[in-house]
Amino acid sequence: MNILLLGIGNVLWADEGFGVRVIERLQKSYRFPDGVNVMDGGTQGVYLVEHVQAADALVVFDAIDYGLSPGTLKRIENRDVPNFLGAKKMSLHQTGFQEVLAMAQMLGSYPRHLLLIGVQPEELDDYGGSLRPTVKAQIQPAIDMALAYLQAFGISAETTDTDGDLADPVLNIQRYELERPSAEQACRIGDERVLQAEGLAVRPPQPAGQPTLQVDVDYRGKY
Amino acid sequence: MTVTNTPNGFNLNDAGRRVVVDPVTRIEGHMRCEVNIDDDNIIRNAISSGTMWRGLEVILKGRDPRDAWAFVQRICGVCTGTHALTSVRAVEDALKITIPENANSIRNLMQLSLQVQDHLVHFYHLHALDWVNPVNALKADPVATSALQQSISPHNPKSSPGYFRDTQNRLLKFVESGQLGPFKNGYWTNPAYLLPPEADLMAVTHYLEALDFQKDIMKIRTVFGGKDPHPNWLVGGVPCAINIDGVGANGAINMERLNLVSSIIDRTIAFIDQVYIPDLLAIAGFYKGWMYGGGISGQSLLSYGDIPDKANDYSASNLLMPRGAIINGDLTKVHEVDLTDPEQIKEFIPHSWYKYPDESLGLHPWDGVTEPNYKLGPNTKGDRTHIKELDEAAKYSWIKAPRWRGHAMEVGPLARYVIGYAQGNKEITEQINFVLKTLDVPVTALFSTLGRTAARGLEAQWAAGKMRYFMDKMIANIKSGDLATANVAKWDPETWPSSVKGVGFTEAPRGALGHWLKIENTKIANYQCVVPTTWNGSPRDEQGNIGAFEAALMNTKVERPEEPVEILRTLHSFDPCLACSTHIISPDGTELTQVKVR
Q1: Same domain flag for B114 and B176
Q2: A190 vs B71: CB contact, 8 Å cut-off?
Q3: Which of A62, A77, B274, B588 sits at 20 to 30 Å (Cα–Cα) from A8?
Q4: Superkingdom of this entry's organism (chain A) (predicted)?
Q5: Where residue B5 sits, what CATH number does that domain have?
Q6: pLDDT, tens digit, for every residue of B130-160?
Q7: What structural domains and CATH numbers belong to chain A?
């Protein structure tokens, strides 16, 4: 049986990196039997199709905005996963991953067991920032949730004291946080300055003339 | 009403009805476009706006330059490897680090494999649905589809009626299950779709085949980059050792892995020759009458060039992917391009939401400033968080306006191919002539949406052939006893000068990509990227020149303004990727999911 533990998200956008950081912890501190693949999917979309197809069971870790309090973990299974990913799009990779699932299905191989472990993010608009404490505190509970799920398939992991090899050591969370440039060095409040910009005067809608035609072409929504 | 003649030759008229497309989908990133259409539904004014804020320097300043590649390849999910390659080249340029021949071949193989895979995925999975109607495919006769397939690609073994009937059944089952997925909400009754059902079925079948096949191409980067997604890169070479007699998965490149890469290259060449190119020509044949979308492609084109034949020589004569600039539509003269010349590439911001000390001047990327300044013009319609119509006379985009010697330029496969054609590049000229002859169209047909799409296919074919070339070259080099893959002589920061600057460039699948950096006291002091979609998606500049997207939309007839498939068709033909040209901002700063500005 092939099992894929997949973290998706963008480490550069604060809590968006949750899925990838879960994978980092798994790679560092756990050993799995053969047949279990632990993968940092990052922001990849269509390139993940192959790995999804190859999995009999797929566990996805991601940050998902479902309107609960920050740091809340949510567990979604099987048929609900694609719908859930499409319900409230927070970032590009989510629509991307929803499409990855649809493509795997079209190609005729789709995981028989699918589990999505999502965390409610607290902060996304902090470019170059790391996980907020409330979200970081959910890494271990998310792992425990996944390990309990794997028990049903007779899979158990060993913890290890010796650090395992990380897929992307340059981006490991300690260095990523420690070597972040200071706010003085690299102004990181761009958004705030935008919001505080002067002269943000907008004339009210003008009645004259022909009406604007608005077209929403975002067809990749719910399905 | 305003009527304007732009210096780059377009007559803008904003009198007609405004159509807003936001977000433009099937692209990476967030983009908005607004056009005015006249009484005949012809586009007379066009505005392209990136709706997110960027600022890579925010994350890279003060970090170790040897790590920058790992950060930049996380910017987005598409050209990860291209950013990484550009970054290690910039650092090597700054520190005057040379790389071994094998490293050059391996980097080229990775870059070419990305070109092929990206072009293939773009054509079949992002762009095809602008031309192909999957719902119509359900009406096709599999026997007629088989006949069509055999007529356009006699060597393709997958052409039996049963094969197409199977796909049709699969598609039907998928549609009936309600999981229309990527095919949902298309404009499937729009008269802009011109293919007969058989061609639609053939293309949808290859949509699935290509999806299956692109996974193989990726394995090339897994072999050389150690892993995928997000392969490893190294300043000074590549992070994989060569041990030709090695066995098993010890990490080194051995004969078994080289054979795997070699067989993937052969299958890639076959797939492009037997599936991609015949499909492209067949589809183009039905749309020959739709010659919109040329924009500035007949006038102003730019390519930095890529794929160095020999290692460490980045001069135009050593780059297999052509380098140069064409301006004023003069194909008899290809200008030299120098990324270090402060007079050539400059970014302007009079229509971008940034602040410069003097906004009438442009800045070279080494002197680049990224200070946001979100101001809307007086004629904006809507409110602060819900813009209904942008005021293009003022600032209206998060994308800066880069210019080459003051000219708005188009970058990407069509730019590279026209430049190569103008330079008399033999391979490129032969490919272009073959297409023009097969379709029976004049050379000016290149300057169109369809021309852009065709150039991408031809380039995929070219890139697959060049993968074979570098594979053979590397094996010959290894056999001659050269196993070096990295130069670590200057790995130690103690060996570096206290203040240096460098520039790295590549041709990303969607166009010219440059990273400019300054290193001070062994840390990154400034890092600026000018990405392909900054060129193509740029807003107006100080002189009023419109950008490549804007120009390409001009004078296009939109059959049904409420279903603007023609607009999407042209924008998609650039393979736009805004994830790195702009970055996310929620306009009111509160709603996490707010990414549209409407």
Answers
A1: yes
A2: no
A3: B588
A4: Bacteria
A5: 1.10.645.10
A6: 999 988 999 999 999 999 999 999 999 999 9
A7: 3-177 (3.40.50.1450)
